[in-house]
């Protein structure tokens, strides 16, 4: 450490909060003699002392967050609102960490109303202006916007500098445009909304093309992709708000002048007293070895049990003061004898972290490149199967001290021999295979004839425990729970046009990347699995999520056949109709042509040229032309009505009739959608590539698309759909006896409601009354307002309010359920489904009334939608065994909301319908019967 000078030459700013959380999650529990937990304090102090010893800084500070009440929360109350409180064991350590900073004679800085990042930005500016070189010690991506000619970052975990090139590698843009990219893609960790559907790669591409965020938003109407264009136009203000949330303030009032950050020599007596008080004997010993003798103090108090954890912790901290996950236990397996040793260790342990590396994200088409195994924390290996790249320049550590020249690389055993060795391990019932999103790995291996059982999935463990309160990607969970920043994929494979597939990654880099994934997965499993029992979530995981994985793997592998000719004909039909609709719209605009896909041009036509009422401008000064606005205008003029038709048809053509043909797998002739198991708030599955859950059911165009999904020759498609399951769940969870009785008797529930609400005899309920009752029945469970119901039914708002009040008077259990559920959400931050799933309700305490009301509606609906999701998942888990027991050859192909789609031999269609109906109707026992409608036909559209 340099001696202090008047003018700073090198200013080091340490992200204190990042250090604390990394230390806490990286080290096992440790306690002082009085029981106070100190593992974070130990790790933090070790890191700080190491940095002081290694750095040439003459000015240095540790910067802390003061509280969550910052200016960002004032402009956007949801900012970081979803973050859970810190662990109870960490709370008492915050003050002790600040004591550690003082004991090291280092400046500690914090300021109410500002985050640590803002203070770091402010002092970085002051350092630059003073001519100093500035180093920010952190790996936080939010701080990368500060990197520049005088400012660099140091990743304390990887001990590597983060310069402008590293920032560009991560964000695709230079530091000066990081804020613009973050404004577009948002940040789930901090609850920064961004623009829906835009990730870092797309954001970087857009900013690179248009220069900056303001230019992009001003020219959004020029974007060729219709969906992206509309999304940016609709969410321009949210992007601008997000920019204010992610942009760091460098004008915070500095709590200390820059001169107050000058480094001072350690005071051995002061530091020794602190270390003795905490019982940090190993650090005291190091202090003495370095020649500093602390003042006499009472004998160190013994550190409380568990002793095994402490003995393991101290050496780890000494060896890895940066509190990173060490990689010196990672090995590359290049011969069968070594592979056999790792398999034997996994078998003996009975538990193995497991991951695959591939050359594609399409699990059905991907080639397996390698497999990684972790047998204990920090002990993992990578088994390459197909690599065309040698090691990097220098020598390649093959494990055990062997080295091979980089030019040639090791000779790998034949792939079939490696797979033959792995096959028994993967199927061994005595060895639990732990993966992260293990569905993907199982899908890849299934293509090679390998079965993986039994399994645990850390992604699903996290999803069951924490729901939608945060993301469940491996990188995010590693940072959240272990304080560890994993190796980015781009760091080994590159990005953009220069990106390579994993089989071309040098083996030493592939080893560290792949082994780390298995290692992190194993560590996360040890943290997350015990929480299931403690938080009463074992049933959800063990009966719904874990056993569903192999069912989904089989579904995705089966895929579903689509009729190319039917799709081509449909695309041609849609194209002709789009041309006709466009001509009609132009004619309704007195023959003056305009771009139907341009909200800006459309707004001028509707509200300036045609002078339609009710126009609203966005904050950018453009007319709003969302679908709900066009629906309000449709009764007033034919142009918005025809434009709605044009929009829907254009979306169906681009998303389905055109795109589905390109998504047919040439090897199977079928479309293989991918189901996301941890993506929704309520537990529902979602599908992508292609998304088969958004095909309209009630429109004729949607039915035409479904008719293009067909059965193989000699087979039929079976569609089995729960009837009114959400209404049945309302009757169950709210305890509505009248509705329970109506469902039990098989009565028409909407006609029954109409008779009850409108005071007429059941045989006098006509179609109009039934439609109104249906709108109320379904609207109530989504928290519909009098305004919303009036708009939907086309009646005065007062009449709609009277209907809702009459509904509540007749079914008083409903408002009681609503209040009870909102109170539960306010108390716990989540509600539970009948089967116990947590449905989180972020925003339930929001100061903004609209945001709070939205969260309350989500809370009311959570047990309903989440309950329906749980029930159909349970049916899916039980269905394969039931079909096998009945001797039926039907295979499950799709799950779409409350519907299951199977393919069955034509001769077994009726028996399959009966078997599926029996499983689905008896999945759970409710206060009302479940009813399933099942039908078999040659196409999905005809079977529905």
TrEMBL record:
Domain named DNA-directed DNA polymerase family A palm is located at: 702-908
Would the keyword Heme turn up in this protein's UniProt record?
no
SUPFAM superfamilies registered for this protein in UniProt: 5' to 3' exonuclease, C-terminal subdomain (SSF47807), DNA/RNA polymerases (SSF56672), PIN domain-like (SSF88723), Ribonuclease H-like (SSF53098)
Query: Which segments constitute the 3'-5' exonuclease domain?
Result: 330-533
Q: Matching PROSITE patterns, A to Z?
A: DNA_POLYMERASE_A
To which protein family does this belong? Answer: Belongs to the DNA polymerase type-A family.
Q: Describe the function of this protein.
A: In addition to polymerase activity, this DNA polymerase exhibits 3'-5' and 5'-3' exonuclease activity.
What protein name does the entry list? Answer: DNA polymerase I
**UniProt source species:** Phaeospirillum tilakii
- Native organism taxonomy: Bacteria, Pseudomonadati, Pseudomonadota, Alphaproteobacteria, Rhodospirillales
